[in-house]
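User: Here's a structure from my thesis project, written as structure tokens. My advisor, Dr. K., wants to see whether a designed sequence matches the one we expressed. Can you design one independently, without my sequence as a hint?
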């Protein structure tokens, strides 16, 4: 066994230090929710073109929103040790912010289950941002996907988490 793992509390490692999926079969289902955010930075001209509906591929925001929802639903297919989950709510919101300039993205994922949905919320934001980029790259290839992170999670054994606001 790897000595650096021997006394750790890393739940995704077995006694040999190998990655494995955590057994959640004995855990009690509780309501859990996670919220993640991110940004897509772009020129003001690109932002205005998207807002006006002038992107070459069509409905940038609607497509990104749906892609984010689909991404959350596919998280266990993308992240090797994530459990497949019966998600009960996925909300993906995108709104323009001229101070970036660009779009802010927020995903909220809710479930009543034995494990949390942080990865699903983060995946939803990531896929929505990638899709926004794909839909608008004909306008600008220098867009930047930035600052994807978890802002809160509730429920579960580890308790609630809220990012501290500065």
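Assistant: Designed independently from the structure alone:
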């Amino acid at each position: 066994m790897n000595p650096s793992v021997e006394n750790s509390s890393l739940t995704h490692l077995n006694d040999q230090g190998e990655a494995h999926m955590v057994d959640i079969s004995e855990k009690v289902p509780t309501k859990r929710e996670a919220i993640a955010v991110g940004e897509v930075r772009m020129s003001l001209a690109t932002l205005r073109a998207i807002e006006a509906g002038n992107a070459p591929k069509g409905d940038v925001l609607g497509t990104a929103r749906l892609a984010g929802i689909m991404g959350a639903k596919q998280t266990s297919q993308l992240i090797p040790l994530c459990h497949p989950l019966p998600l009960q709510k996925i909300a993906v919101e995108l709104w323009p912010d001229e101070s970036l300039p660009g779009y802010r993205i927020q995903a909220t994922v809710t479930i009543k289950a034995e494990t949390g949905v942080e990865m699903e919320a983060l995946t939803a934001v990531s896929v929505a941002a990638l899709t926004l980029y794909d839909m608008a790259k004909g306008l600008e290839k220098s867009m930047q996907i930035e600052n994807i992170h978890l802002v809160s999670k509730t429920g579960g054994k580890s308790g609630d988490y809220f990012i501290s606001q500065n």
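When you compare it with your expressed construct, this may help: Strands lie at 30-41, 89-97, 102-113, 144-154, 161-162.
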